[in-house]
Amino acid sequence: VTYQKKLDPVLGIPTPTECEAEISEILKVNKINFEPGSATIDASALGTVDDIAGILKRCGAIPLEIRGYTDSQGREAMNTALSQSRAESVLNELRARRVLTASYNAKGYGEADPIADNGTEAGREANRRIEFKLIRPDTVASPTETTLESNAETSDTDSAATSEGTD
Predict the structure, then answer these.
(1) Is the model's pLDDT at 51 over the cut of 60?
(2) What is the CA radius of gyration of the chain?
(3) pLDDT tens-digit series, residues 66-93
(4) H-run or E-run covering 104
(5) Where are the alpha helices (DSSP H) in the chain?
(6) CB contact at 8 A, 23 and 55
(7) How would you classify the pairing of strands 64-69 and 129-134?
(8) Which of 24, 67, 129, 152 is the 20 to 30 A CA-CA neighbour of 40?
């Protein structure tokens, strides 16, 4: 008898970071394309969605954001709405493949954050994309003020209240 870690129901589950990396590798090879000016996923990309769904089923409930991007052609408001619709289309396709999506959200970023030059057709094609990113909680909470500032404000208030009371 040999022990196979990948068959263990608990140890065989990839970490959220591993899931994100696996999906990124798939998207490097096969993009999720859409029909021009539409949120309808191109038929040639449905196999890619199938592959991603397979990974996400193994990953379980991980906090994930499906991000949609467009190129810079057209009005910015239209691009933001189109990218949102495209991200939602991907989310709906995952649901259709019975992926549990309660911990996922879809967000359209429009033409923000280009990864290539929008001045060329190849660049615009690269900028029209879907990304899957883990939603990571902020590990360091940034306090609004330091303890020293807080004490200084308290001292000023106390001394002001004291001088008001003596008048």
Answers:
(1) yes
(2) 24
(3) 999 999 999 999 999 999 999 999 999 9
(4) strand 104-108
(5) 16-29, 46-59, 76-96, 121-127, 147-166
(6) yes
(7) antiparallel
(8) 24
Sign of the dihedral through C-alpha 14, 19, 23, 24: negative
Distance CA 76, CA 82 (A): 10
**Which residue is listed with tokens 């991007």?**
69
The whole-number average pLDDT for the span 111-126 is 95
Tally Cβ neighbours within 10 Å of residue 93. 18
Task: Please say whether the beta carbons of 41 and 129 come within 8 A.
Answer: no
Cβ distance 30 to 48 under 8 Å? yes
From CA 143, how far away is CA 147, in angstroms rounded?
9
Residues 66, 79 contacting (CB under 8 angstroms): no
Amino acid at 154: T
pTM, two decimals, is 0.75
DSSP single-letter state for residue 10: T
DSSP state, residue 142: -
